[in-house]
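Subject: Predicted fold for YtpI-like protein, 107 residues

User T.R. writes:
Posting the sequence so we have a shared reference for the thread.
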Amino acid sequence: MNALSTPEWMATLVFALILAIIAYRVIRSMPHMAGNITAFRKRTLVWTQVALVLAVLQLNFKAGDWRFGIILGLIVLFTGSVWLAARYYDLRRPEAADPAEQKTGKE
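User M.O. replies:
I've generated the structure tokens; pasting them so everyone works from the same file.
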């Protein structure tokens, strides 16, 4: 297996830091989002699933190279954290619940 060089590790850490800053800003702005956060939550779930599928495919077809797999893993963590935060805020706001859930009486 190929070992990552120091510049590659540095670039990976910079990319992770950028994603962490973006996630922090998005999550901190969620309580102030106007409108329905449910649609945002559904979109982030789709992107989390897409990134997860790509990461699993990369792990299956890698030829001893972890570079792209690491980046995909970071993207999975980023989208997953934003989705979890959106789900948390969506569940905390009962007035923003899904109309289908309100019809059936579920919370």
